[in-house]
Amino acid sequence: MALESTVIENKISEKFGAEVSNFRMEQDIFTFEATPAVIKDVIRFMKENETLHFNFMTDLCGVHYPDNEKDSQFAVVYLLHNWIDNIRVRVKTFLNGNKLEVDTTVDIFAAANWMERETYDFYGIIFKGHPNMKRILNDEGMSSFPMRKEYPLEDPGRTDKDDRFFGRTPNNYEPTK
To answer: Which letter does DSSP use for residue 142 in this model?
Structure first.
């Protein structure tokens, strides 16, 4: 019998209570949120539980939501796959913009190593306990994190780019100050 999303929700809710929330289907993927304090335990539980068997980490990435309140401006998104029942789950944890730290999951999924480094490299999210937390794609000397939405897409002083070609006009695009 296939693993149902209600079973996943019940098992995780029983174990973690109020630390997990907002269970829903989002673009055909069962999705929920966990607090940063328990995200590592949730990921471990999902892998090791005899019923759940989420034994593969498909992806881990960061997201910047600049319009959110300060305590939820950044998210780390984990995509897990149960190969036995062919079920995918998305787990999100939201981070405070002033404290971009979350526990590493490298000791649970070795594949998280480079994914966490890439997320640090582009968003500045620090994975506590990571064995090699340093930039992976950008230059070590960079002081900014290029995937943050703190900068306009194009330099307003450039004359060789026209924002109209990117779906933006002066009326619908206000550069971040």
So the answer is: -
